[in-house]
Amino acid sequence: MVSDSQSFSLPRNVPLPRVTFRRPTEIDAAVVWDLIAKCPPLDRNSLYCELLLCTDFADTCVLAERAGAVVGWMSAYRRPGEPSTLFIWQIAVHPEKRNTGVGKGLIISALNRPSCESVTHIKATVTLSNRASRLFFSAVAQDLGAPIRQALRFDHEVHFKGRHESEHTIAIGPIVRSIGPAGISADLPSQYANKEATMTDRSAPNGGDEFAIFNYFESEVRSYARSFPVVFARARGAQLFARDGTAYLDFLMGCSSLNYGHNPPELKSALADYIAGDGITHGLDLYNEAKESFLREFHETILRPRQLDYVVQFPGPTGANAVEAALKLARKITGRPNIIAFTNGFHGVSLGALSCTGNRYHRAAAGQLLSGVTRLPYDGYLGSAVDTADYLDRLLSDPSSGVDAPAAVIVETVQGEGGLNVAGTEWLRKVEAIARKHGALLIVDDIQAGVGRTDAFFSFEAAGLRPDIVTIAKSISGYGLPMALVLIDRQLDKWEPGEHNGTFRGNCHAFVTARAALEHFWRTDSLAASVSQKGNLLKSRLEQIAQKYDPTRVSAKGRGMMRGIDLKSGETARQVISTAFQRGLIVETSGPKDEVVKCLPPLVIREDQLSQGLDILEDAIDSVIGGTVNRAA
User: Which helix (H) or strand (E) holds 107?
Assistant: First the structure.
């Protein structure tokens, strides 16, 4: 095993004093206490307690020194009833030495001691507001190649009577141990087993950390990867496969960018044939056969049967590009700057689209005022007794309301990122009529709810709407390839040549797979009928899950195959998706506080796979909030 004097060098190109980890002694107690005092909000335990840790529990406590000064301290112990678990009471790192790997080194040093050679698990307690600690333990789990779990331990109300935040247990393990040729614990990452290795959370990539390349080279802006910390290698149908071969059911599906599943064979074949034939890859807005075939199929299969006389604009590859173009065109046509958007709407994060997006977190990242939009309450936002469409009409009819006549009203029929809020048919019809009455265009953002996600191809079909402009993206390519459309009423196509453009508005590979998807899935009504059937199964199962609990804390919501469970708490929802992931299901959260677990399974998922995924979700919810079952039900 690695001795207590094992050293770790700092990640620099010049020699620096190294950090040494050792067993504490009773003379260290006062120094330890001073270090803890510099690290709020850690408990400033009595000197008596620290003396115990430095003597009776010294074998499981670790001191870190650099150039003769104490820079880190970890107090830990093994409970008699759980000898295979190292429980970490607290870790203190000098403020000037944080983010250099000292914290991880403390843990690894303890695990490398003979006294901990039978330890297979690590545990600690944290509050959810302590994001730094949660990220730290997640990184430790990644370095050890061990799973991490989180569960409520002490409840805010039940145990602390509302005087302290809930405490959660973080458990890491099992840690698989094996002894390498030099006697070093080979299960520990090489950066800790090597004396000269780096000590930083963003250290240069090496072979000991599965995520090193991502952590070192990729921006901190990444988000989904933090919830699903594995490296994925393959995908097929409703499943993603990790590099080690572990299969996961995918109820995220690229946030509804993969409605037909991963690598649908009909689309893959069409794309492979096109590439093999040296088909054009990038065409700007030049005339080409791939675009011609898509436009013909889209008109014949989608627009003409629905009697929709739209021209198609290719604005760029993303949904935000489509929204930007739609807003710009509406303002050009009407000569008005104001746009009406709704609470909890999400339309993208580029500046124009972000102005229409409601989420405060995303808006704050703009770093500037976002103007030109009046935000009004969505259907049901003020309760079922208030018709917010009537409110909209009243504001636009009153010349002293302070709301300027709008160029357009932009609306999602189902708010995906906003929390699966569903607009009623009558409300949508009223909004359309109000827009017409006041000379505004109606823009339907169908980027997430469209392309079959809510049964029909367009989410607005059931309400009988005739939008002036429709934005489409995500699953329109059918294969996860970047592609977006703006559908414009033919009489409203007032663009001048090149007035709105983008280098990647001609993704020919996406045209090929989009045409193949329309041809294979939409020439008949069979997919829509299947989606309706599976949507009803999804609805029924989610309602059954919700009925087990207090309806004020758990409820089902959504439409079609865009449904979920509202857990009323972002903290609870995050625990649920984490637990579900550990059991083989990838599912995300949405809503203003990430309180809704949102299910977006592929439209083509087999019913047995759908049921399997819902079983996992139900078990995860039961594990997290099972103690609050609605007994009256």
Answer: helix 102-111
Cα–Cα distance for residue pair 123/188, rounded to 1 Å:
17
pLDDT, average across residues 147-166: 77
Contact 153, 169 (CB under 8 A): yes
> Which tokens hold the place of 226?
């933090």
| Alpha-carbon gap, residue 136 to 101, rounded angstroms | 10
Judged by DSSP in three states, 441 sits in strand
Structure tokens at 315: 């604005």
DSSP string, 265-285: HHHHHHHHHHHHTT--SB-TT
Q: Closest by alpha carbon to 480, among 262, 249, 239?
A: 262
* Residue-wise DSSP of 443-455: EEE-TTTTTTTBS
Three-state DSSP class for residue 88: strand
Task: Report whether 61 contacts 76 (CB < 8 A).
Answer: yes
- Which residues in 383-404 are b (16+ Cβ under 10 Å) and which e? eeeebbbeebbebbeeeeeebe
- Are 429 and 464 in contact by the 8 Å Cβ rule? The answer is yes
| Amino acid at position 451, single letter | V
For 240-279, write each residue's pLDDT tens digit. 998 888 899 999 999 999 999 999 999 999 999 999 999 9
3-state secondary structure of 241: strand
In the β-sheet with 339-342, what is the strand arrangement from edge to edge? 310-313, 485-489, 469-472, 441-445, 408-411, 339-342, 373-376
Q: Report the residue count for the chain.
A: 633
- Report the mean per-residue pLDDT for the chain: 86
Nearest Cα neighbor of 512 from 266, 257, 271 is: 271
- Asked whether 584 and 245 are in contact (CB, 8 A), the reply is no
Amino acid at site 329: L
